[in-house]
Amino acid sequence: MFVKGWFYNGVKVSKWENDNNGKRSVSYSIEKSYKDKATDEYKTSNTYFSNDIDALIQCLLKAKSESVKDIFPKNQQQSAPQPVQNNAPVGDDTVPF
Question: Coil, strand, or helix at residue 61?
Fold first, then answer.
């Protein structure tokens, strides 16, 4: 069953929920729509050009951020990743190759 979709510049990410023998599963689909200049009709595609990548990333990030809320209850949500601390001295002798 369709739950929600995110659309940006012709790219759409859709969230789907299914019940498989009493177990809930969530899946996502990705598609691009465009208007065919020859027929003046809207068509769908799963081919992406370089200028579609930003739209795809934005939709996926939004879907991911909302999915984390679905998976983890509010009191168990994961915190944002922290940068790795590397206290090793900097110099040519620390390069492993």
Answer: helix
